[in-house]
Design brief:
Blueprint lengths: L12 E6 L2 E6 H4 L3 E6 L7 H18 L2 E7 L3 H10 L10 E3 L4 H5 L3 E2 L4 E2 L1 E6 L5 E7 L7 H16 L27
Parallel strand pairs: 3-4, 4-5
Antiparallel strand pairs: 1-2, 1-5, 3-8, 6-7, 8-9
Helix pairs in contact: 2-5
C-alpha cells in the first residue's frame, strides 16, 4: 500500500444524498475547510449503521470545529436515500452520503476490496488544502469511534496552527504539547 499521508485527495465528482436531496459533490468542493471521509462497505449492513449514527451524534461538534463529514460507500445515492428513509439510525445522518457506484473514490483512497466491490472501513482527515493528514483503516468487523475522530481533528488543527509543536499520545485539547528539540532527546 502506497503512503497516502500528505497526499492530495483524488479528484472526483459524484452524486450524494444530503438532507433529503441529491447533490453533486466534487473534490474541489471539499477544499477550503477540514473534512472527514468515512468509508464503509455497504448500506443495509450491521456495523455500518452504528458507525454512521455515532458520527451523526458528533456531527454538530465537528461542524463547530469547521469540519464537514463525507460518508462514502460503493452504493449509489439512491440506495443511500432508501437506507436513510428506512433506518432509525441512518435517519439521524445529515452529513453528505456520497455514492461511489463506480468505486473511483474508494480506489483513489486505496481501500477498495475488489472481489466484493466494497470499501474497507477507512477514515481520512483532510486539511483545508485537500491534503490527507490522518488515515486509519479497519477490517470490516471492527467499528470506529467518532469521539476519537474528533480528538484527532483537534490535534491536526492544533499542529497546523502551531508550527513546531506536536501532540503526544492520547492528547486532548488543552493539554500540554511538545516542542521537539535536542533538549528532549532521551528525556521523554
Amino acid at each position: 500500500m502506497a503512503a497516502i499521508i500528505n497526499q492530495e485527495i483524488p479528484e472526483f465528482s459524484t452524486e450524494a444524498f444530503v438532507n433529503g436531496e441529491f447533490k453533486t459533490i466534487t473534490s474541489e468542493d471539499v477544499k477550503g475547510s477540514w473534512a472527514v471521509f468515512m468509508f464503509y462497505p455497504h448500506d443495509f449492513t450491521f456495523v455500518c449503521p452504528t458507525e454512521l449514527e455515532d458520527m451523526a451524534n458528533h456531527y454538530q461538534e465537528l461542524k463547530d470545529l469547521g469540519v464537514e463529514v463525507y460518508s462514502v460507500s460503493t452504493d449509489t445515492h439512491f440506495v443511500h436515500k432508501a437506507w436513510h428513509d428506512s433506518s432509525e439510525a441512518i435517519g439521524k445522518v445529515t452529513f453528505p452520503m456520497l455514492g461511489d457506484g463506480t468505486g473511483k473514490i474508494t480506489r483513489g483512497f486505496n481501500i477498495m476490496i475488489e472481489e466484493d466491490n466494497a470499501a474497507l472501513r477507512g477514515t481520512f482527515i483532510v486539511d483545508p488544502d485537500g491534503i490527507i493528514k490522518v488515515a486509519e483503516i479497519h477490517d470490516l468487523g471492527i467499528g470506529r469511534s467518532a469521539k476519537d475522530v474528533v480528538r484527532k481533528i483537534k490535534a491536526a488543527q492544533y499542529v497546523r496552527d502551531n508550527d513546531g509543536e506536536v501532540c503526544p499520545a492520547a492528547w486532548e485539547q488543552g493539554q500540554a504539547t511538545l516542542k521537539p528539540s535536542l533538549d528532549l532527546v532521551g528525556k521523554i
